[in-house]
Design brief:
transmembrane, 8 helices, mainly alpha
Length: 218
């Protein structure tokens, strides 16, 4: 789980940070072309979103195959699909999150500050440092609002949530994950739906922000 946690945060933040300067520059071009009557906000935003999809897919494929083999996960079609699925949509929502932060803020510097704050909060509530059952009940709602928590839930539950290997006389791997982390293999369908919804939500927010906000200075 530690390798998954470190990889998700490192690669996710890298994706988000690397896309911010690009979007900031292209937004300046968008302002100019929009003033000339050449660009419309929604098609422009749609193009920005769609162009990232195949790039992230290739990135996830290279990363997923190499890391899956090196870590030594079980080579079954279902488990490899789940691993690739969760990594792909995770990198996608981080990328769209970086684009969204630029769209809702005046410039890249402010976007980086806003994004960094949420990276820290997501890290804290991801369920790795403090498992969900140990988070105070009045803060547990934010665990369910944390994208990284859903990613870790999906990755860990899909790889280990159905393993019946005995850890102690009273507990196997599946029971340990349920007791200590609150992960259930049967919940994967819901986790998958949320993981798909996250990049869609960030992409829509990016598009609406591009359409509604104008930070151009005259």
């Amino acid at each position: 789980m530690g390798s998954m946690y470190a990889a998700v945060l490192f690669l996710g933040v890298q994706n988000s940070s690397s896309v911010q300067p690009v979007v900031a520059v292209e937004r300046t071009v968008f302002y100019r072309e929009k003033a000339a009557g050449m660009y419309s906000a929604i098609p422009y935003a749609f193009g920005q979103v769609v162009i990232e999809i195949p790039y992230v897919f290739v990135q996830s494929a290279f990363y997923g195959i190499i890391v899956y083999a090196m870590i030594g996960f079980e080579w079954t079609a279902a488990k490899f699909f789940w691993y690739f699925f969760f990594m792909y949509f995770t990198l996608l929502y981080f990328t769209f999150y970086g684009m969204m932060t630029v769209a809702i803020t005046p410039n890249q510097n402010v976007a980086s500050i806003v994004a960094a704050f949420f990276y820290a909060v997501w890290n804290l509530f991801s369920g790795f440092i403090i498992p969900r059952p140990r988070i105070p009940i009045w803060w547990r709602w934010y665990y369910w609002a944390c994208p990284v928590a859903w990613t870790l839930y999906g990755l860990v539950a899909s790889q280990f949530g159905d393993i019946q290997t005995t850890l102690t006389d009273e507990e196997n791997v599946e029971q340990f994950l349920n007791r200590y982390f609150g992960f259930k293999h049967d919940f994967l369908g819901v986790v998958a739906a949320v993981i798909v919804a996250l990049p869609v939500m960030f992409a829509l927010t990016f598009a609406l922000a591009i359409k509604a906000f104008n930070f151009q200075r005259r």
